[in-house]
Specification:
Blueprint lengths: L1 H31 L1 H5 L5 H19 L11 E9 L3 E6 L14 E5 L5 E7 L2 H16 L10 E5 L10 E6 L8 E10 L28
Parallel strand pairs: 3-7, 4-7
Antiparallel strand pairs: 1-2, 1-6, 2-3, 4-5, 6-7
Length: 217
C-alpha cells in the first residue's frame, strides 16, 4: 500500500513539474509574440497566468490528483510552539494537488473550555486480544460489528501538547485559508512518529514504546 502511495506521489510530482514547464513556456511564448503584444494581447504576466491556468486544467482533467476541496474543516501539522490558550503548528498541505494554494504554512490554533482535546493511547496486548475476541464473537453470532481500533481515546489538555507532536485539528468553519483557527477538537497519539508520551519517559530519557501487537492466525 505504501509503495502504491509513494508511486502515486512521484507520478503527481512529475506531472506537476511538467505542467509547470508548460505554463512557463506558454507565458513566454505569449510575452514574446510581437503580434499579440502589438494588439494589446497581454504581457508576460498575462501569458504566464494563462499558462498556469491551462496547466491546472490539464492536471485536473488528467485525474492524477483528486478534485481540490472547497471546504476544509480538519487539518494536521507539527506543533511549533505552545502558549496558555493556543499553539502554533507547521501545517500539512490541505490539498493533494501540488498546483493548489495550500493556505498558510504556519497556523495558530486557539483552544478554549469547549475544545475537546483527546489523546490516543495504544491498547495493551491483553486489551487488544479481549477486544478482538469480542469482535469475533459478534461476527460468529451475526451481530453488526466493526474491527476494534488498536487504541483508546482519553481526555487530555493543552498542557499535554508538546513541541514536535503531530496533531489533528477540527473546526466548525471552513479553515482552508485560515491563519488562526478556533479548534473544536484536537487529537494526537501518545506514541507515534514525532509524538512521545511524556509520562512514559524514565530517568534514562529513553521513551518506553508499547509492545508489538501479537499476530493471530
Amino acid at each position: 500500500m505504501n509503495g502504491i502511495k509513494t508511486m502515486w506521489i512521484a507520478v503527481a510530482a512529475v506531472a506537476a513539474v511538467a505542467l509547470l514547464i508548460v505554463g512557463y513556456a506558454w507565458g513566454a511564448s505569449r510575452s514574446n509574440n510581437a503580434s499579440i503584444l502589438s494588439l494589446g494581447g497581454g504581457s508576460y504576466a498575462t501569458g504566464y497566468a494563462a499558462g498556469i491556468a491551462e496547466a491546472k486544467k490539464k492536471l485536473k482533467d488528467s485525474g492524477i490528483v483528486p478534485v481540490s476541496p472547497d471546504q476544509v474543516t480538519s487539518i494536521s501539522g507539527t506543533v511549533k510552539s505552545v502558549g496558555t490558550d493556543r499553539f502554533i503548528i507547521t501545517a500539512n498541505p490541505v490539498s493533494m494537488n501540488p498546483l493548489d494554494a495550500q493556505g498558510p504554512s504556519e497556523r495558530t490554533i486557539v483552544v478554549n473550555d469547549q475544545t475537546k482535546i483527546t489523546i490516543r493511547v495504544a491498547l495493551t496486548p491483553d486489551e487488544l486480544n479481549a477486544a478482538m475476541k469480542a469482535f469475533q464473537e459478534n461476527i460468529a453470532s451475526k451481530k453488526p460489528s466493526v474491527p476494534p481500533p488498536p487504541f483508546t481515546e482519553k481526555t487530555a489538555s493543552l498542557s499535554d501538547i508538546k513541541i514536535g507532536m503531530i496533531v489533528t485539528i477540527t473546526a466548525a468553519d471552513n479553515i482552508k485559508d485560515a491563519a488562526t483557527i478556533n479548534a473544536t477538537q484536537v487529537s494526537f497519539d501518545a506514541v507515534s512518529k514525532g509524538n512521545i508520551d511524556m509520562t512514559q519517559i524514565p530517568a534514562t530519557g529513553a521513551p518506553v514504546l508499547p509492545p508489538p501487537v501479537p499476530q493471530t492466525k
